[in-house]
Design brief:
Elements lengths: L2 H10 L7 H16 L5 E3 L5 E3 L1 H13 L2 E3 L9 E3 L14 E2 L5 E2 L4 E2 L4 E2 L4 E2 L4 E2 L4 E2 L4 E2 L4 E2 L4 E2 L4 E2 L12 E2 L4 E2 L4 E2 L4 E2 L4 E2 L4 E2 L5 E3 L4 E3 L8 E2 L3 E9 L4 H4 L3 E10 L2 H7 L7
Helix pairs in contact: 1-2, 1-3, 2-3
The structure holds coenzyme A.
Coenzyme A (COA) binds next to strand 25, strand 26 and helix 5.
């Protein structure tokens, strides 16, 4: 039976005890995620992303199957977690730079050759991080997040996950996106290729994004998250809070604004350093 069907059958069962055979099924899923042959979401030829809901089901199953164990290192660094989700056993052959200093990459995620993880950073289960991407200090790659090639996740950039609070679609950051320092991208937001999020930009399902160039307002919709168009340069802005009370109190709401689409000046401001990879 294909892995997907075995995972779905196990996830649907209301058993509270599991066998070694069940754990082997989870092991297969984790290996496939580590290899990148199974993904939480995939981009089709038409550019549309499709979510593989069974992958998230399998990850949640891993928490049900697991037992809390002592994962302490050298008896001094104290860690306690489900035995099904240890850190990923990377080796030199993976060609990933994990710079010393306290980063963690969980088992069951794909991290491509040429990725750099600056400390401290965290890559959660189900994530997919493609070639040449930089995960800078204090950055989070949340559960099932899909990060493309040559993405720069700047210091303290937070990419949310789907496990809790419960989300259906993962956050997706396509190739060559620059995510500025302190940004937050959450709740199934899709950031299309070559976009730039200026430092401090926050995107959620509830965030409208005002596009000054195209004269549109980008919003999430039923069954789809917020989508930032390819090449957009998004900066943090503000708009007047809804009248009359907001106006009388002189309040404004945070709102991201697309000020331009990527040009030579943006390229110069966001150029990557090849020597680091
Ligand atoms: C977005 C960014 C790359 C600038 O891109 P750019 O193409 O050079 O942008 P421009 O300078 O042409 O600015 C275009 C417009 O947006 C405004 N703007 C640019 N960056 C802005 C920002 N961060 N916040 C608010 N407005 C901004 C400019 O004032 C300009 O508007 P104006 O013409 O009305 O003055 C830069 O602001 C940025 O955030 N860089 C990332 C910094 C960072 O996080 N580094 C990582 C450290 S680890």
């Amino acid at each position: 039976m294909p892995l997907r069907e075995r995972i779905e059958a196990l996830a649907a069962s209301d058993r509270s005890t599991f066998t070694d055979e069940d754990r082997a099924v989870l092991g297969e899923l984790k290996e496939a995620l580590n290899r990148g042959s199974v993904r939480a979401a995939e981009r089709g030829q038409d550019g549309q992303w499709r979510v593989n809901a069974w992958v998230k089901q399998g990850i949640l199953l891993g928490f049900r199957l697991g037992t809390l164990v002592d994962m302490s290192v050298d008896g001094t660094l104290r860690f306690f977690d489900k035995d099904t989700w240890p850190t990923r056993a990377l080796t030199l052959e993976d060609r990933v730079r994990v710079v010393p200093g306290g980063s963690s990459i969980r088992d069951g995620c794909f991290v491509a050759p040429g990725v750099v993880c600056m400390p401290p950073s965290y890559v959660n289960v189900g994530a997919y991080v493609d070639e040449g991407t930089m995960i800078d200090s204090h950055a989070l790659v949340g559960s099932c997040a899909q990060i493309g090639r040559r993405v720069h996740l700047s210091a303290a950039a937070q990419v949310g996950g789907v496990l809790e609070p419960i989300g259906a679609a993962p956050v997706i950051i396509e190739d060559d996106v620059m995510v500025g320092g302190g940004c937050g991208v959450y709740e199934g937001t899709l950031v299309r290729e070559r976009s730039v999020l200026a430092a401090g930009t926050i995107l959620t399902r509830s965030t409208p994004v005002y596009d000054l160039v195209r004269g549109e307002i980008h919003r999430s919709g039923p069954g789809r998250g917020l989508e930032i168009p390819a090449g957009a340069v998004v900066v943090p802005g503000a708009r007047a809070a809804t009248p009359p009370t907001g106006m009388s109190w002189a309040l404004s709401l945070y709102t991201p604004i697309i000020v331009k689409y990527r040009d030579a000046k943006t390229d110069a401001a966001t150029a990557l350093e090849e020597a680091l990879r």
